[in-house]
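Batch manifest, entry 17 of 40.
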Amino acid sequence: MAVKIRLARGGAKKRPYYRIIAADTRYARDGRFLEKLGHYNPLLPDEHPERIVMNEERIRHYLGHGAQVSDRMARFLDKAGIVPGATRLRGTGKKADEIAAKKAKAETEAASA
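Output type: structure tokens
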């Protein structure tokens, strides 16, 4: 059973509210899940303490047992310091090439310094 830590959408139309869940990858996005690990309310301001609430202990437990994370959850975990460097850059377009070039240039400069 492949477990994934991801978001499940709730709330009314144009009033999104997300639960942070651990679920089998075969389950529907808003369907069954193994455990609720927190919640995310995108309507609150960025600095509000209730915008993202996570149970770090249980998230670390699932990650320790091989759970994968969705792209959005990787960003949240990176920002919270639970999994540093987990943020993934997606895309194959011109902007992604520019970002990759800047990253490679910065690495070569750091290696030569």
